[in-house]
Amino acid sequence: MIVGIGLGLVVAWYVLRGFGNRWWWARRWVNRLSPWTRRLHAWVLSAPVTFTYIAIFTASTVVQRTSPPRLIDLLTKLNSTNLFRLGDDPVEALLTSAFWVADHGSGLATYVLVFGTVVAWAERRYGPPRILLIGASAHVFGSLITAAVEKGAIRAGRLPEKIAFATDVGVSYVEVGSCVAAVLIMTGWVRLAGAAVMFVWVVLPVIVNHSIWDFGHLYAAISGLAAAIVLRLAGPLRTPPPLKPPLVMSTVTERVDS
Prior knowledge:
- With 258 residues, the chain is mainly alpha-helical.
- Helices cover 75% and strands 0% of the residues.
- The chain is built from twelve helices and no strands.
- Helix 9 (128-155) runs antiparallel to helix 12.
């Protein structure tokens, strides 16, 4: 649904611009909305890594929701960072699992919202290379630590052996790691609010549920935070690029018809 709404809004905007070349009421709406669309355009261009990632995992979710469920279950399991796949081909497992949303794409709208706001804001401050390293660290190290804990728990008899074949895909690991990196560079009451949200989101489920997946999110958040601290110490934050109008601007101007 979110993909359809997004595409619908884009199509509606360009249709409105087309009408603006002929009718005064459309020109008026184009002129009113253009400052906002230009800022949105500039926001997307200022966080290329984040919005490219959004496009990729949104596309994979569309595939999940338009394909037979059994086929998707098989694909996600084959692209998972479970113990079996990590033992068979760790590089491919870590790479492919980062682009799949769990539970047949459940919660896509929330992922898009969080990445498009919080993570994009962080990329504007850290810069594309550093936010890429932060997200990758959260996913890779979070997945590997979780796998090591799973292996130890299976050997100790605390988890069933079938957990080695469970589905564990990683957009959420990238998300929590990137968000905690964003909280790190916030200031004042915003940082306190962000820390409170991260506690409720990541730490509280570990205390209440004790599931291996909740621990995985905690490990990913710690890994993302560690990477962010190291990269923050390596160099100052960059000045966010201004939300200037894009190079190609609307040529539609207000005109008074006689």
